[in-house]
Specification:
Two copies of one chain form a homodimer. By secondary structure, chain A is an alpha/beta fold. In chain A, strand 8, helix 3 and strand 9 form a beta-alpha-beta unit. In chain A, strands 3, 4, 5, 6, 7, 15 and 16 form a seven-stranded mixed sheet that branches. A six-stranded parallel sheet of chain A has the order 10-9-8-11-12-14, with helices on both faces. Chain A has nine helices and 16 strands. The first copy, chain A, has two domains: 151 residues, Quinone Oxidoreductase, Chain A, domain 1; 151 residues, NAD(P)-binding Rossmann-like Domain (Rossmann fold), CATH 3.40.50.720. At the A-B interface, strand 12, strand 13, helix 7 and strand 14 of A face strand 12, strand 13, helix 7 and strand 14 of B. Strand 13 of chain A pairs antiparallel with strand 13 of chain B, so a sheet runs across the interface.
């Protein structure tokens, strides 16, 4: 059969543009034993994908030129030569940006759409929710009464981090990029306070005011000047899970900033980078916890859903405009 | 009785000078119950003292103007109104820079000079040895076969770190500031390789050459450009204990450098500042380990001994010239 795919047409310099992607037809071969034919339902777009568009060593290999982009996809089975899957099953996995595609049955995982909407398995019950859970709990180790600051707080990971911190009895402050987002954090997601960095002249003072007892855990999704300001307010023995550096992803030169080590040293601070797959063996435990909190009404989740396969690049580029709230997915 | 003391005369801007210190006479009061009279034998001078000369929040409070400097001192008891100490006992503690001084018997600890020379309790069996031990073992967590890089490697902490890493089966590379020091590290202290950063044009390449499997643990005593070069060679899941930042201590402005977070993030690296007193409850365990390795001949230690109470400021200033090898102490 013939289907559509998006390939990486060229590597971006700085901010990616539509020219870096190309939609084209592709022929799929016949199914072999152990394989299944899948039709994409929901495609995840995530900030980390920007890194894979560079030709650089990182935790995941770069996308290749003229090869399909890939990411998390929820798909339904439309054909099967596997004993484990039948037509109509809904699965999740890392798949190419194709409307239809073939996968080995070992590379997919069946999902339970009675527990939560299918798209949630790309979000709060998928990589983003698990990223929030393990980064906060394993590295941040929040204790009741402590102050937790989250940057990129209205993003898919950020809203989950803040809510888990509230569940653990912390004072939670979010940093986001618009008044609407800041308001959502306090009204819808239970954050104690939120700061719109775009309208705040002195972030250092704003964080000090929102965190009268200093910052014990800083869950960093953004990096750059915002993180500098938070770190100026960091407490002795604080923990800083490094989850993302979206403010720097489109830099074409090595970004410079104040050296961190003197502050980390004099205040005995821990900073640790991580990727959710470090915790792969613990995923079932994380999903169970997250699903439990959703069921109890303690953990809410929002999505921005873009319609149409052809809008995959647009949805990805939108992440860097800061326009989305919560998890960005594309429904086909 | 009347004795001599050194006070902080003024706070340094940048590199400290002799003008920042003043020697003067001071009268000691009569001993009260529970107090002992002590005569200093060995005075420790340490890089961290530079931080206490500033009026800035840190892990130890600043020295006060016109008040005596203080630090680790080995002293002998010359008078006692305590049931726990008698004349002739040798003790260690944090004391003022005075030739004679009074201490509460709760603030001193008797030392066993049959196990090691008295001055060792300011070094390998004191704060510097314990700093090396806990920073490397608790944060660095070296595993056999891994590569450990130490900066400030010929310093009091550095030589101990390197030897403990060798005891644990690691490939150990030291960075130091002269050919003599680099040679000492490989010939006397068992390091596998050593780099003289002062004569190395491209530190990044030199570290890559000395660490063909990359860097798993970077024990950082210096900060600045040297650390930037090491971190460019850091492995996935590496650990960076932050012990000192001597290259930055005399900065008068906030030092700038390449932002670290992208590297720490993409390689899942842990960086953690610490001060040895975080491990206070585990000190007896650390001293036992270190003393055992000394006894087995696996752990060597060198000192630079300056003579004369009046040379305390000179000895401290000497730390910032990079002239000393091993622990710097002043014998009176």
């Amino acid at each position: 059969m013939t289907t559509k795919q998006f390939v990486l047409a060229s590597r971006p310099k700085g901010l990616p543009t539509h020219d870096n992607f190309r939609m084209e037809d592709v022929d799929l071969p016949e199914l072999k034993d152990g394989e299944i034919l899948l039709q994409g339902m929901y495609y995840s777009v995530d900030p980390y994908m920007r890194g894979r568009m560079n030709d650089a060593k990182s935790y995941v290999p770069p996308f290749e030129i003229d090869q399909p982009m890939q990411g998390g996809v929820v798909a339904k089975v439309t054909g099967s030569k596997s004993g484990s899957y039948t037509t109509g099953d809904v699965v999740v996995g890392m798949f190419p940006w194709r409307k239809d595609f073939i996968a080995n049955d070992k590379d997919v995982r069946k999902i339970d759409t009675s527990l939560a909407p299918a798209s949630y398995y790309l979000g709060v019950l998928g990589m983003t929710g698990l990223t929030a859970y393990f980064g906060l709990m394993d590295i941040g180790k929040p204790k009741s009464g402590e102050t937790v600051v989250v940057s990129g707080a209205a993003g898919a990971v950020g809203v989950v981090v803040g809510q888990i911190a509230k569940i653990h009895g912390c004072h939670v402050v979010g940093i986001a990029g618009s008044d609407e987002k800041a308001k959502l954090l306090t009204t819808d997601f239970g954050f104690d306070d939120a700061i719109n960095y775009k309208t705040t002249a002195d972030m250092n003072k704003a964080i000090a005011a929102a965190c009268p007892k200093g910052v014990d855990v800083y869950f960093d999704n953004v990096g750059g000047d915002i993180s500098d300001a938070v770190i100026r307010n960091i407490n002795f023995h604080a923990r800083i899970p490094l989850c993302g550096q979206i403010s720097l992803y489109n830099s074409t030169e090595i970004p410079m900033g104040p050296r961190l080590q003197p502050m980390l040293l004099t205040r005995s601070v821990l900073m640790q980078g991580f990727i959710v797959t470090n915790y792969q063996v613990q995923f079932p435990e994380g999903i169970k916890k997250l699903a439990g909190w959703i069921k109890e009404g303690k953990l809410k989740f929002t999505e921005t859903i873009e319609q149409g396969f052809e809008n995959l690049p647009k949805a990805l580029l939108g992440l860097f405009d800061g326009e989305n709230t919560g998890k960005m997915v594309v429904r086909v």
